[in-house]
Amino acid sequence: MIRAIQVYLWFVAAIAVTSVNAKDLNDLGKIKLKALSGDPSSQLRLGFHYSTAKENLEEAFFWYKKAAKAGEPSAYHYVAKAYATGRGTPLNLELAKVWYEKAALRGSATAMAKLGDLISVDDANNTVNALAHAWYALAVGNGESAWTERRDRLAEGMSEETLELARKRMEEIKGKILPPKERRPTPPSPTKKRGEYHFQSGQKYFGDLKEGLPHGYGRIQSPDGERFFGEFQNGKPYGYGTHFSSQGFIIFSGLWEGDKAIAGDSPQARLRAMLKSP
After folding, report:
1. Which listed residue, of 37, 64, 99, 134, carries a Cα 20 to 30 Å from 168's Cα?
2. What is the pTM of this model?
3. Which one is the CATH code of 24-182: 1.25.40.10, 3.20.20.70, 2.60.40.640, 1.20.1250.20?
4. DSSP result, the chain
């Protein structure tokens, strides 16, 4: 029992020391534990932390996307920005549009403007110009005055027929924008199925389950005393996790995919980062 407590304390400490700029290191540990349990606001805060204080864009994207999937409106914008710039995830302009639109329909004027930017660079035609102008007009109407010139410059090359189409598109979009009361995410459900799972290797898991397999947040203990705390998907570590030796020392803390560490604080992860560098 004493060893288990020591390992747990190591786990909390490992989470805490990921921020050298935090005023209270224990606060970051609490935020990460809440994020792992599914709290979107905490996931969003971790996204901010890793994109600024730690400059770990891959992990920042991981937390932003979790918050976005949980319905956190602010996270939609950051996921879209990552796809649009290729920072933290591969460049994908189509996915950038999808996530910017999600943010825009929840009232983000900046996302409306960014959608106008992305759409306006497509092959020019009346339909594309009308849709881009509609998003620019909505952005300006919602306080993003910096895009006024782009809206007006686009309008100069549009026929009256296309301008009328843009006005119709704008009214259609207005009808889809959610009212303020409906923009916030629903709280995480506390009714996840939890239990034990025994691996053939002798390792024991306790935590969230889906169809009998580890899926969600949980912990593993091996027969020799090693432990792993983190997220799982379809029976394997996937997401943020920390691996400890039987003595409670941190072997690895960071992002996992399957049974492999892909990003984080360890010699192996630093080597992978070097090998991926141009």
Report:
1. 99
2. 0.67
3. 1.25.40.10
4. -HHHHHHHHHHHHHHHTT-SS-SSHHHHHHHHHHHHTT-HHHHHHHHHHHHHTS--HHHHHHHHHHHHHTT-HHHHHHHHHHHHHTSSS---HHHHHHHHHHHHTTT-HHHHHHHHHHHHTSSP-HHHHHHHHHHHHHHHHTT-GGGHHHHHHHHHTS-HHHHHHHHHHHHHHHHHSPPGGGSSPPPPPS---EEEEE-TTS-EEEEEEETTEEEEEEEEE-TTS-EEEEEEETTEEEEEEEEE-TTS-EEEEEEEETTEEEEEESHHHHHHHHHH--
